[in-house]
Write a structure and sequence with these properties.
Largest sheet: 15 strands, mixed
Radius of gyration: 23 Å
Distance between the termini: 51 Å
Strand content: over 45%
CATH topology: Pectate Lyase C-like
Number of strands: 33
Helix content: 10-25%
Oligomer: single chain
CATH architecture: 3 Solenoid
Length: about 400
Amino acid sequence: MMRKLLVRRTLVVYLVAILAFSNLSLSFAYWASGVAGEDVVLTSDVTFGDWEFCTPIFTAQEFYDFATSSTSLTTDNYCLRNDIDFSSFTWEYLNAHSSNQFQGTFNGRNYTLSNITIETTVSGTVYLSLFSRMNGGTIKNVGIENYGMGFTVAYYNSSSIQAGIFAGEVTGLNNVIENITIDNADVIGSSLNGAGGLFGQIEDDAELVIRNIKATNLTVLNSSKRAGGLISRANSGAGQIIIEDIDLQGNIATDNSTSNTGGIFGTFRNLTGSISRVVVEYIAEGSIDLSDGTITFKSTNYAGGFVGNNNSDSILTINDAFYTGELYNTLDKVGTVLGRKKADITLSDVYYSKVLFVDDYIPSSGSIINGTVVNASTMPDNTWWNTFYADFTAANSLWTQDGTGRPILIR
């Protein structure tokens, strides 16, 4: 009996200690190199409900200092504690940011970063994004609302921009981005490595998982070839890219004779990947306002519903996917799945409806791949959507349907 009492008392002591510890204010420095040459210390918190230790971010300045710091540690763990409005904050991309790499974890905790306008005059290669580059990092549970560019047309025309909302370049293993909502965002690039809604170029041998992404009013433009709704170009190597549960609507285009424009990838090059449960609606033409003018591009070559160019030796599968939109290219170089076929793609339950091919609803031919047409010039009816939707809701409870039956992703 006495032994049982001792055990119970020990447990009570442990519980009291945990409760006391949770109220302590702990310090946790920014990345080892510091910010502007100095260590910046924030108050951290411990959450026992989801067993997360993180350094909280409260203000626009704190997020900017965090996101633009030099190379992070893999153990770094940061989180938002509230929505942050950047309306009165100047986000300036500096030359030093180009060497940054994010390697830790950022949890937005379902808060939103809004009204970010990125300004820069940096010459040379610019990774125009929140984190510049990512190497083995995790980004999750965050909304992006009203994201745009504040530089001039002259600067854009003379620059070399590799762009994505979160990173211009991704390297390394175990990269994850999940549970992201994007509304009204502009991404613009001016290099061969292109522009993507989430990331610019995925480098050789990198591993990346993308899941639960909802994007509306997204515009991605590149003056050179390659633009993708999620990724500009996934490069060659032993890496693997897994993409699951995507609901994307926007405008994607390049201003180049070899456009390589796609709703998911601009170019998928010599690696392995899969795309599952996606609904993509995009037009291969778009405009982005800069500080003193507007850039407008219209793709003229190799546009695909999901992939612009699937390069040789690629192994790519697409399952449970639907595309609708407008592909403005010559008839032999647009496809509802793929705009340029250098390697076959394995398809399962991949469909399209109401796709404008150049100037009519007659599908193109040539070295492209089309999905299975449901209705040529109209959207599917509710009965068809219900059948198509079954695999979505069985795999992920974040999917629901709108009034027409179309699957929509909620977060």
